[in-house]
# Entry
Amino acid sequence: MPTGIELTEGRTRLLVPEEHSSHGPGKRTSDVFFNEQMAFGRDVTVMFLRALERNCISVADAMSATGARAVRVANEVANTSVTSNDVDPKAKPYIEHNIALNSLSNCVPSNMDLHVLFSDSSFDYVDIDPFGTPVPFIHSAIRGCRKKGMIAITATDTAPLAGAQAGKCRRRYQSEPIRGYMCHEGGLRILLSAMAKELAKFDRGMRPLLSFYADHYFRIYVQVEEGARPTDRTLEQIGFMHYDPKTLERSVSECRDENHDKGPFWLGPLHDKGLLERMHTGGLEEEKRCIKMLDLWRNELDREPFLYDVSELSSFTKMSPPKMEELLEALNKVGRSTPTHMSPTSFKTELDTKEVIAIYKEISYSSGLTHFQ
# Structure
């Protein structure tokens, strides 16, 4: 029997190693990895699969570790058949114990290399949650995904994707990242672009259902679409970006040129709004956070790359920032503008840069805010 401590996450009992990560990207403090902070991410998976409202769905959690995500799905999402897999033989006793702890008949343990698993079997929903970059596993995840299935991918290599380690981003994702206030949205869109290009090799397209940045990781859920036409439509939504920090001007293009030298990025929507409306938060571990994030995802503009940040505008105009609520109210009188889940100080807007700067200055003046040195 494995050793550790028992805790309850959502509606599920879990045995995890006594020494485990509780915040940040996590460190390997024991033979089998578990990070408490990822409870929110596991909550989202439960919400997502519930919202599909399917009669039966086969699920593969390919890198399960303790089996926390897989066991929660089997226990908290109806009509699921779950394979909880991990290549590490030390993980299997935890998976088996957690299946028994919750008296589950719809979850089976597996101790295989995921490349072998997806060569032998296919599933309606494939989940890849590695420690670091997902790049080495995406090809096999696609092979293991059934026609019209779904794939979920986590990337914790935020430094390369957000541009702090640009060389690694170029090598891993064949993309030039963007730094500054847009870095996390840029990283998310680079991950989506990489996923789209890998799917295209199989004549498969994709439709993002939910894509977000949280804590120390990026997470995407995509619906796989079959055939040449969906694939071509998918590739048409990949492009490049121009950003001038001297003027804050930004634009996108389907083709790389001397101005549009960042990317490629996914330029399409990040979410499926219909699916988000069906997602509900009952019985989750971090219910308040899930409610807040669902509201942001449902309402944010997600077709306008890329976001603005009040700190960026403050630095550019040399004016103290107004309250976000007042700024958004002023912006919305001219064109739709929304908060974004990326940061509490960032927003998305349909307005062009010159309009944003002009309204920012106007609201700052009217609020009595002064210039600073």
Notes: The first strand starts at residue 5 and ends at 9.
